[in-house]
Amino acid sequence: MPAIEIKPDVYWIGVNDRTTDLFEGLWPIAKEGVSYNSYLINDEKKAIVDLAKGLKTDEFFSHVAEIVDLAEIDYVVINHMEPDHTGVLHTLRRIAPGATILGSAKTKGMLESFYGITDNVEVVEDGEMLPLGKKTLQFFSTPFVHWPETMMTYETSHRILFSCDAFGSYGALRGALFDDECTDLDFYQKESLRYYVNIVAKFSRPVLRAIKKLADVPVEIIAPSHGLIWREQPQLIVDLYRKWAEYATGKTEAGITLVYGSMYGNTEAMMNAVAQGISRVGVSLEIFDVARTHVSYILPSLWTKAGVMVGAPTYEGTLFPPMAQALEMAVLKRVLNKKVAAFGSYGWSGGAMRHLKEIIEPIKWELVDSFQFIGKPSEEDLKEGEEFGARFAELVSRIGG
Ligand code: FEO
Which domain holds residue 376? Predict the structure, then answer.
């Protein structure tokens, strides 16, 4: 995509990334891609807001050069130091050594530790204004959305909020840059949730603080550093982020995430019976094979639904390892306060339930019911499994929402 003017003299100069397999070296984006949105304000003073990961560097600087002479860049605003937004910084320094880097006090320290950059760096304060000529930038400190140094930048004449990670999503841009041009908003909303839960959710309280702090700032365009620019419905993405952040307290949707693993099909056979019972009650249900689904895709369901049905066999006296690993990620991401039921096959001694309880205890998941069977489930076991699923669904339908 070429540079795109989003308002007079304000340009998107980002790059699409469709070749990175794992965002942060961890989260799958091979199918979805991601964009690193960067912005250029071409006024008497010329400012770039946020940069890009250190790939497609030629493309990034070509965008800038389409609009201004690279050596004429006056300011580079760093809202956030994570290298997906700063990776081209060294190259920029070589091309435009006179450009002053602006960021928070913590950004100044990180510029040295991440890039060895100490010269021509200025700290901006919360609320500080920077006149560029006809336009003015204002900086708002929003720590821990996503790192401690994070801030947002507001362009006052067009009321554009450059929000960096906040209000962002996975998903490379698919030809459309703006929400009103996009024909698959559902894709971006789904990928916004996955991005939120993977990257930002642990910092939900800071997200709510930032939304509250900016509540009186008139924003017409939300321009995040990943995904679509929201100019028709900026409130939509803010409301979604607020809703997801509020889920951190545990008040979520009346639904069940059924996450299961099976070595030889016995726990899977029971999973089908349990799912039948849940479906009979009519509670919303998402099912994941934990050994074959990256936890990145399971976390959004765990985050948004009140109930978790765990189906896993005992493996060498412990919980089936892929299940343990997925739940440990839920612990790391502070997915709190769920109602849980669990089932699974065991061969002789069991041990999965004990291990499960140990894992979920720190995040206050309450194991309300469990059902184990030896080896292959009998017809009676399967009937009991269906009732077990229905009982749990009834419980969840009463507590969710
Ligand atoms: Fe998009 Fe926290 O970096």
Answer: 250-399
